[in-house]
TrEMBL record:
Keywords: Transferase
Xref: InterPro entries: CoA-transferase_III_domain, CoA-Trfase_fam_III, CoA-Trfase_III_dom3_sf, CoA-Trfase_III_dom_1_sf
Keyword Transferase: yes
The protein's name: CoA transferase
Keyword flag Transport: no
SUPFAM superfamilies on file: CoA-transferase family III (CaiB/BaiF) (SSF89796)
Length: 396
């Protein structure tokens, strides 16, 4: 497939594993950048065997649009090899514990001295500075420290997780945002820079006014299950054959929902007519709506909410996504011919750019170091004998 992406012509060296670094590479690769993923020889990135279900296919999504080389970063020869690759790159992504790159002779500050236009995105649990910087930090730990885990779940139970590695992917997204901003600066000044994206700070960034609420009034948000206190009605309700989400928490929407329920008088009822009143009577309001929705199927409810122009929708799983005509019309899910699993459906590239659309141009590499010969020859001028010798010595 032709590369029409906005980042066509940029080369990225992706270093790191599980999951922030690789997801950042996926985002940049989808947008057209040439992603050279550096993996340790042997088993490679643990993402190769991650995922749920009988077949582990997480790798097929995260490693699309990438070429794989192997390099043993624990030996000087492997470190030298990667240093040479970086000399041919515009961007470096890494998500090791702070100090690791320096230990390998790849201190980003020194790399920047040698290549003033280089952009280096560093993703870690706690950031590159501060008293916790050298601690190990996974996504779940960042979610806990950033305030997310405490407020997710039912109030009478321990904090819940999202079901996906949201801390890692948020950090990757902010890391990519930093890269795009740094590219603009480089276009105007010719100079690159180092981006420091911490897991806990990425989570903190999306917690809205959580800290400010405590600072201004001592209020601490708590776990509230499926609702947001004071915002009503906005909840998941049970139909006769499944779950359905309704969000009618604005005054005009509530009046329309009241009419849809066959009780238009509730739209002006003092108990529910205003945002404040509905929040004060949230529990009884949800119970009333829930008693009504269970008399309808999901499809019937969906038709009714569409008729009355009320924001609402099914609670989707993968089967519903694949069957939905809107997903199909927008090609939100595409089929990719993978090297390991054959044809595999996965999420497409987002967001959609009108002039420089992103794309999935190559499947995830099935083997560690699959592109050693191609890349080491193309960029470093190494011949087959030199590469074979490095393989014998455990360098690649």
């Amino acid at each position: 497939m032709e590369n029409t992406g906005a980042l066509k012509g940029l080369r990225v060296v992706e270093m790191g594993q599980l999951l922030a670094g690789p997801f950042a590479g996926q985002l940049l690769g989808d947008m057209g950048a040439d992603i050279i993923k550096v993996e340790p020889p042997g088993k490679g990135d643990p993402l190769r065997i991650w995922g749920q279900g009988e077949k582990k296919v997480c790798w097929e999504v995260v490693a699309r649009n990438k070429r794989s080389v192997s390099a043993n970063m624990r030996v000087p020869e492997g470190q030298k090899l990667v240093r040479e690759l970086i000399r041919h790159a515009d961007i470096v992504i890494e998500n090791f514990r702070p100090g690791t790159m320096e230990k390998w002779g790849l201190d980003p500050a020194k790399l920047l001295e040698e290549q003033p236009g280089l952009i280096i995105s560093r993703m870690s649990g706690y950031g590159q500075t501060g008293p916790y910087s050298t601690r190990a930090g996974f996504g779940g730990i960042g979610e806990a420290m950033g305030g997310w885990r405490y407020i997710v779940g039912e109030p009478d139970r321990a904090p819940s997780r999202m079901g996906v590695s949201i801390g890692d992917t948020l950090t990757a997204t902010y890391g990519v945002m930093g890269i795009l901003a740094a590219l603009h600066v480089r276009d105007t000044t010719g100079k690159g820079q180092i981006i420091d994206a911490a897991l806990y700070e990425s989570v903190l960034q999306i917690t809205e006014s959580l800290v400010s609420e405590y600072d201004s009034s001592g209020f601490i948000r708590q776990r509230t299950g499926s609702i947001l206190p004071g915002i009503a009605p906005s909840n998941v309700y049970y139909c006769s054959d499944g779950e359905y989400m309704i969000g009618a928490n604005a005054d005009p929407l509530w009046k329309r929902l009241s009419a849809a329920m066959g009780k238009p008088e509730l739209g002006d009822d003092p108990r529910y007519a205003t945002h404040i009143a509905r929040g004060e009577n949230q529990t009884e309001l949800d119970e009333m709506i829930g008693a009504w929705t269970k008399n309808y199927t999901v499809e019937e409810m969906d038709n009714l909410m569409t008729e009355y122009s009320i924001p609402a929708g099914r609670v989707y799983r993968a089967p519903e996504m694949l069957a939905d005509p809107h997903f199909q019309a927008r090609e939100a899910i595409v089929e990719v011919e993978t090297e390991t699993h054959g044809k595999l459906k996965m999420q497409s590239t987002f967001p959609k750019l009108s002039a420089t659309p992103s794309s999935i141009r190559r499947p995830a590499p099935s083997k560690v170091g699959q592109h050693n010969a191609e890349i080491y020859a193309e960029l470093l001028g190494l011949d087959a004998d030199a590469i074979a010798k490095m393989e014998e010595e455990g360098i690649v």
